[in-house]
Amino acid sequence: MQRAIKFVSVLVSLFCVVVFCFVGYGTAFIPDSYVAVDVNAADTGSALFTCRCESDVALADSDGYAKSYPAQIKLFNAIPVKNSTVTVVHRRYVTLGGNVFGLRIFADGVIVTGVGTVSSEGTDVAPAKKAGIKQGDIIRKINGTAVTSNHDISQLVENSSGKSMSVELLRDGKTKNVTVEAARDTADGKYKLGMWVRDSSAGVGTVTFVDNETGTVAGLGHAICDTDTGDIMPLRSGDILDVIIRGCVKGTSGTPGELCGIFGSKTLGELYMNGATGVYGVVAEKDSRAPKIPVALCSEVETGKAQIVCTVDGGEAEYFDIEITAVHRGEGEEKNMVIKVTDSDLLAKTGGIVQGMSGSPIVQNGMLVGAVTHVFVNDPQQGYGIFAETMLSTARELEEMLSRDAA
Q1: Do residues 251 and 123 lie in contact, with contact meaning Cβ atoms separated by under 8 Å?
Q2: Does residue 257 contact residue 250 with C-beta atoms inside 8 Å?
Q3: What is the DSSP string of 146-194?
Q4: What does the pLDDT average to over 269-286?
Q5: Residues assigned a catalytic role
Q6: What is the CA angle 334-337-342, rounded to 5?
Q7: Least confident span in 148-157, 330-339, 361-370, 393-402
Q8: Which of 113, 193, 218, 399 has the CB geometry, 3.0–4.6 Å to 128, for a possible disulfide?
Q9: What is the full DSSP assignment across 201-253?
Q10: pLDDT at position 33, please?
């Protein structure tokens, strides 16, 4: 009898030690918050621990807004370990992209791409540089008149006849005012400031997804930047155009390839946002019958096999095999994952990732998990991707902005 009692006591002691260790582990290493999708529980990543809300949880709003609730982590679904927070989100569904589109954007102001000199009266002068104007500045007004094109600046400068002009510009997000006097160019007799400017840009990219309920379209996965300054082009307005692919220049180590195409005659929609996570707009025609795909949460993306969807030879968008070799959470907006092209057909056609494929959807486990953003210059088989959830969040910001404007 005493042996039995001793044996039971040892078992109870061992059990208490094990429980104590698990509780200590859970307290130290289990996160304080979780994300759940349309459910009343969140996955802790362990079969031993469960995360249960302390009260009934209503599903997140159908428009995708998340709701947070207090919850408790329990060992064996019985022993309290720590308090937590469950954020319940509504699963969003979108129409997969993969088709190439043309982008034509007009800057909000005129971008200074460089400053130089003007040959005037036998000497070289630099009016813009003397006034403190720098490459990357965005000129908004001259003498109180808004400027939106290169022609606007040329006309205002010529009309100044060399008299002092006030220039309002944007630098590093802050408004700055300078005074400048144009010089008469000896060669053609026109007044000039000695600077180069750009008011628009155009290029080719790939659609990531379309929300056919709202008409929102997202693509690229990164911003359109000025080719000279490297700065994000401030968007005043823009168009989405159809593109006809004529071929592809294969990428090699040190030389990125590119899709070769020409703009078609059809305008597919309007652009409203150009930012770090991509370009966003609204399509002219919605297709409510188009098939939909669920958008993965950042936490659901994992290393392993996946596919990208892209158009490389003028036909329909195709699926090509890749591997997600690394996932980086909380490390910026554009380089959330590293991908490697493994599909022999795509490698034969393009050599890997090429310019124009930015925005190509990344699909894993039947969900849209991200979009291609960059190629490794020295290894075109590899590149970076952005989380689809991040792009969807920006798309929702656009929807909210347009809704406020409409109201």
Answers
A1: no
A2: yes
A3: E--SHHHHHHHHHHHTT-EEEEEEEETTEEEEEEEE-EE-TTT--EE-S
A4: 92
A5: 222, 343, 358
A6: 125
A7: 330-339
A8: 193
A9: EEEEEEEEEEETTTTEEEESSS--B-TTT-PBPPEEEEEEEEEEEEEEEPPBT
A10: 58
Strands 118-120 and 337-341, bridge-based pairing = unpaired
268 and 373, same domain (yes or no): yes
The answer, yes or no, to whether residue 401 has pLDDT greater than 70, is: yes
- Please answer whether residues 198 and 110 qualify as being in contact, where contact means their C-beta atoms are separated by less than 8 angstroms: yes
Residues 303 and 371 in one domain: yes
Distance CA 43, CA 59 (A): 16
- Considering the domain boundaries, does residue 365 fall inside one? yes
Q: How many domains does the chain have?
A: 3
**Count, residues in the chain:** 407
**Domain enclosing residue 362, as ranges:** 207-406
pLDDT in tens, 26-83: 455 556 655 666 554 444 445 555 555 555 545 444 444 556 666 666 666 666 666 6
Confirm whether 102 is domain-assigned. no
Whether the Cβ atoms of residue 215 and residue 399 lie closer than 8 Å to each other: no
Q: Distance (Å, rounded) from C-alpha 9 to C-alpha 96?
A: 61
What does the DSSP 8-state code read for residue 4?
Answer: H
CA distance 195 to 127: 9
pTM of the model: 0.78
Quick check: is 201 in a domain? no
Q: Tell me the per-residue pLDDT of 249-269, one tens digit each, with 9 for 90 and over.
A: 888 888 888 888 888 888 889
pLDDT of residue 19: 56
* Cβ(178)–Cβ(131) below 8 Å: yes
CB 372 within 8 A of CB 251: no
